[in-house]
Prior knowledge:
The protein is α+β, with helices and mostly antiparallel strands. It contains ten helices and twelve strands. A hairpin with a 3-residue loop joins strand 6 (182-189) and strand 7.
Amino acid sequence: MNAQGVRVGVRVLAGAATLIGAAGVAVHFLRWPWEPLVLAASGAPYLMGGAVLGAAGFAATRQWVATGVAVVIAGAGIATQVPLYVAQNGDAGRPITAMQANLLFDGADPGALVDQVRARDIAILTVNELTRAAVASLSQAGLDELLPHRYLAPGQTASGTGIWSRFPLSDTVEYDGYVLNQISATATVPELGPVSIYAVHPVPPVYDTGVWADELARLHEILRRSPTDRPVIVGGDFNATYDHARFRALASGRFADAAVQAGAGHLVTYPTDKAIPPVVGIDHFLLANARATSVETVALPGADHRALVARIELTTEG
């Protein structure tokens, strides 16, 4: 191939890469529950990277107008991701450490989970895919000694959900009308008072994007009705990433994504049981009247998710 042919080929590839980048920016904002778009939004940051390649390709072939377009698209993509890397300041409060873990039914190593709870001084633990066998194994491994208060809705395979707490739990609720179990309770924290705890697990979009969108919307309504006179901690496998507009709607108003508050960046949690490393972050903490100072992922042998650990400061101010 001659030099002219190479230049044409580079421009074609740069154009395709730029279009892919533009698609990544677009799906970050779209709310239409059409499965290809929802799944594309899961990988939006990777798609956005196409605009960077496009800009490089156009610049190499001296296509300056096209280079400018690609740079603008790349800049728009970067702007959507910057909030994940800029920590938010806030008033200090009562410190607490919380963990969110998806157990892959009873596949997660109970001893490893209990070791993490002990080593990281976890006070609140929310879990998904909790089976009755897993409850028994975790109890045998010593979880109830570290976190003696619990409210559990175990189930078959993926449906089970649970809350373990160092503090007494009351006002327990299991919410009807969901495919998987969604629960909440009130923890009474010394020197602070009541803290609302939610453990959630909406269905994945591959189950049915309409049901997925509906469950996220109804969870949004539940959180909007949560008490405003106390901190709220929501832990779960949301089956949605930061790049899903419907998830960001949940993390709005008085609620915030703990990873965004802490400037923790992209915390990929799933999958961990494949030949490839985790590629998407679908496990989250949402907080109200509270601020995360750090959030990190933790390996959980036997599970298909990395667990999430958040160091949180609780306040009573809105």
